[in-house]
């Protein structure tokens, strides 16, 4: 049976409205007024989140006191979010000394997806001191990577001096790269940028260097080897001709 009030909220009236027998339910005056007030309120709020910095700068002159308060609140929240994100990323920022009994916890079992660079050294070896200086600067430049150092005897007994400096690069408990001895570490005249490039090549840091600082030296060595090879081939050819 049809309800006497077509606007009454009943299941039967809803069915009749679906079939078009009853007209759509009229919105009550209170509901309409509330909707209008909400729309007006939304229109008054400036969408700071959707505005670019340039748009915010342009609109700043038009802000009233309430707008400025809202904008300052938004800007504070934005800066707080950025600071928290930066703080989360910058977990390290220094070359820390560890002992052998900390190796597993600090290096092998380090945080997930964090690159760890450990330098095994002896303070009596000048090259080790140089590497420590460079790593200390790189640790500040790349705080998202973990840099640690350890006196070699505390980690490995009877480790030979010829193998120092030794740099191991870890990620998720695996050794991703290693540089053992003076030559592999870059030589006694190792520069900061050269060590940065080496570590960037294996993925441990994200460098802003555009090319290998030793590129000119490498090119010169390749050229020298090529010229020596050509010279040797020429001598060999002349020797064969003399024999004939």
In whole angstroms, how far apart are the ends? 123 Å
**Classification by helices and strands:** alpha/beta
Low-confidence segments, given as residue ranges, are none
- Give a quick account of the main beta sheet: strands, pairing sense, barrel closure: 5 strands, mixed
Helical content stands at 40-55%
Radius of gyration: 35 Å
The number of distinct β-strands equals 5
- Quick check: average pLDDT? 79
Order of adjacent strands in the largest pleated sheet: 1-3-2-4-5
Q: What form results from the Cα inertia axes?
A: elongated
Beta-strand residue fraction: 5-15%
In N-to-C order, the SSE pattern is HHHHEHEHEHEEHHH
Number of helices: 10
Short descriptors:
single chain; 244 residues; alpha/beta; five-stranded mixed sheet; 10 helices; 5 strands; 52% helix; elongated; Phosducin-like_chap/apop_reg; Thioredoxin-like_sf
Descriptive report:
By secondary structure, the chain is α/β, with parallel strands linked by helices. It contains 10 helices and 5 strands, in the order H-H-H-H-E-H-E-H-E-H-E-E-H-H-H. The protein has a 5-stranded mixed sheet. Strand 2, helix 6 and strand 3 form a beta-alpha-beta unit. The longest helix is centred in the C-terminal third of the chain and has 29 residues. This is Phosducin like 2. Belongs to the phosducin family.
Topology:
Blueprint: H1 11-18, H2 29-44, H3 53-59, H4 65-89, E1 95-97, H5 103-108, E2 115-121, H6 126-141, E3 146-151, H7 152-155, E4 166-171, E5 174-180, H8 181-185, H9 192-201, H10 215-243
Parallel strand pairs: 1-3, 2-3
Antiparallel strand pairs: 2-4, 4-5
InterPro entries: Phosducin-like_chap/apop_reg, Phosducin_thioredoxin-like_dom, Thioredoxin-like_sf
Family: Belongs to the phosducin family.
Protein name: Phosducin like 2
């Amino acid at each position: 049976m049809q309800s006497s009030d077509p606007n009454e909220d009943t299941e039967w009236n809803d069915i009749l409205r679906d079939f078009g027998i009853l007209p759509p339910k009229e919105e009550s005056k209170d509901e309409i007024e509330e909707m209008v007030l909400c729309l007006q309120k939304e229109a008054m709020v400036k969408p700071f989140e959707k505005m670019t910095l340039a748009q915010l700068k342009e609109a700043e002159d038009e802000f009233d006191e309430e707008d400025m308060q809202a904008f300052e609140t938004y800007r504070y929240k934005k800066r707080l979010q950025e600071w928290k994100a930066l703080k989360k990323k910058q977990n390290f920022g220094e070359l820390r000394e560890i002992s052998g009994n900390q190796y597993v916890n600090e290096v092998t079992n380090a945080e997930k997806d964090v690159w760890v660079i450990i330098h095994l050294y002896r303070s009596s070896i000048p090259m080790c001191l140089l590497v420590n200086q460079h790593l200390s600067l790189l640790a500040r430049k790349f705080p998202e990577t973990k840099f640690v150092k350890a006196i070699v005897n505390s980690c490995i007994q009877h480790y030979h001096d010829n193998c120092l400096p030794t740099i191991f690069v870890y990620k998720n408990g695996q050794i991703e790269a290693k540089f053992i001895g003076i030559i592999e570490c870059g030589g006694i005249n190792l520069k900061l940028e050269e060590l940065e490039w080496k570590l960037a090549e294996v993925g441990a840091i994200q460098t802003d260097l555009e090319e290998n600082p030793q590129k000119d030296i490498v090119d010169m060595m390749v050229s020298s080897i090529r010229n020596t090879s050509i010279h040797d081939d020429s001598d060999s050819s002349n020797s064969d001709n003399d024999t004939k």
